[in-house]
TrEMBL record:
Pfam family, one: Flavodoxin_2
Record function comment: The enzyme apparently serves as a quinone reductase in connection with conjugation reactions of hydroquinones involved in detoxification pathways as well as in biosynthetic processes such as the vitamin K-dependent gamma-carboxylation of glutamate residues in prothrombin synthesis.
Assembly and binders: Homodimer.
Superkingdom to which the source organism belongs: Eukaryota
GO cellular component assignments: cytosol
Residue stretches making up the Flavodoxin-like fold domain: 5-212
Entry's EC annotation: 1.10.5.1
Organism (species): Nothocercus julius
Name of the featured protein: Ribosyldihydronicotinamide dehydrogenase [quinone]
UniProt-annotated location(s): Cytoplasm
Cofactor: Zn(2+); FAD
Protein family: Belongs to the NAD(P)H dehydrogenase (quinone) family.
Cytoplasm recorded as keyword: yes
Amino acid sequence: LPGRKVLIVYAHQEPKSLNGSLKSVAVEELSKQGCSVTVSDLYAMQFEPRATRNDIVGRLHNLEEFDYGVEVREAYKRGDLSSDLIEEQKKVQEADLLIFQFPLYWFSMPAIMKGWMDRVLVEGFAHQFPDCYSSGFLKNKLALFSFTTGGSQEMYTKGGISGDIRYLLWPMQHGIMHYCGVKVLAPHICFAPESVSEEERKEMLLAWAQRLKTLWKEKPIDCSPEWYFK
């Protein structure tokens, strides 16, 4: 698969963490396959998660009242988005596969990664109603959410205290990625790494490396409500 391009959007403060190791395993394994791998290490980059008027360079579209969505859409058309956004959009544009690597925070992604979604996936670049879901502008791309949890696998089942893990993934996989047209691969979840032995953590890394070997043969998941909520 030489020539395939992968963007890993990575959100963890500590390179020696399991998330850091999962990111490194992905870089190593995909590079071995001949893929070109780029990492956006959000904490190391001190990525700005807040969506503000600083995202627009030059004159605002409406000087009377600030509407972030309208302003970034118009700035994107004019080529007037801030340089950090242009840089991230270029990485997304070039990528065949987006991997999001993070620890689950409060049933969601960390704020810095949500800020990446808020600021980078601008209307006009990633979607433009009615061009969304199957006709979203990023429709030739794949995405995969790889993350760690605090709770055990049993907790994240339909009968468990935290509910089916797919419910948590609905806003990320369907509401963001699928909305932009991206096809979503099954998530890769490392449950409760802090509660298991060093040996089991090594097995988690091996399982991820193993999956990456055949990743390009996988079929995307169904992003319909029937699949999530049946």
